[in-house]
Amino acid sequence: MVDVMANYDLLVDLNQVDFKVETEVAIKRVLSPDADEVVEFITAHFSKKWASEAKAALYKPFSSCFIAVIDKKVVGFACYDATAKGFFGPIGVDETIRGKNIGKALLLKSLEGMKYEGYHYAIIGGVSDRVFTFYNKSCGAIKIENSAKIYLSMISK
């Protein structure tokens, strides 16, 4: 698991984001009958912690989780309002098909969903230096000084 202390949160002004992105995959909001399949994908490709976070987004009457689908198979996911209100994440794409704008499409579809639900800003929580550039280029995310405190209250990191 990544050292939470080395991470920080990002702020996105949803009024400044261009939500258009080209990708060859279908991006869909998850329907409840597909929730178990999505959780299995996240557990198999990422972690139980991320699967737990995603469950909070999935098990709502109006899911706040999107998936990328190729040939009726889940290949990526992104959630918001999972760990906290106004927070984006987690997000992940099957590593065998990365580099095709799927992650960016999932990010932007989720942020657009947040904007349509009335949010003007989104927080991307617990980001490392390794992925900061992706968020900065994709949606103009900026670092929040002295942040990433929400994850300190987890039972285990």
From TrEMBL:
SUPFAM superfamilies: Acyl-CoA N-acyltransferases (Nat). Pfam families: Acetyltransf_1. The keyword Acyltransferase applies. InterPro entries: Acyl_CoA_acyltransferase (IPR016181), GNAT_dom (IPR000182). CDD domains: NAT_SF. GO terms for molecular function: acyltransferase activity, transferring groups other than amino-acyl groups. Residues 25-157 form the N-acetyltransferase domain. Keywords: Acyltransferase, Transferase. This is Predicted N-acyltransferase. The lineage of its organism: Bacteria, Bacillati, Mycoplasmatota, Mollicutes, Acholeplasmatales.
